[in-house]
Amino acid sequence: MSQFGDKWSFLIIRDLMFKGRQYYHEFMDAGEGISTNILANRLADLESNGILNKSKDPNKGSRFIYTLTQKGIELMPMMLAMMDWAEKYDAKTEVPRDFIEKLRNTPEELQQEILEHIPTPK
Description:
Elements: H1 7-18, H2 24-28, H3 36-48, E1 52-56, E2 64-68, H4 70-73, H5 76-89, H6 97-105, H7 107-117
């Protein structure tokens, strides 16, 4: 847990891995209600722990882009297992049915599809 922090860190990793979010404002607008100071702190913690990279946006130099490192990407099996568990035991989970079916029936294929869509540092 010292590598991740708390639920906010997991949500940031989820957003980077599965939802294609890369910018600070995208994390703020994700809908979970994270405060700006907590988001800034968690992004800094994840960067210092080697889970994500922070780089200048080549198109707009005043913005930063966040991407998962290889270390962060290797969290995928754990994240998928947590999603599978949540779908079974948490009635409020929002994991799409087709995603869960693919996770349970062809997990290697699903992981490869996800890897192809995870943004990498420029």
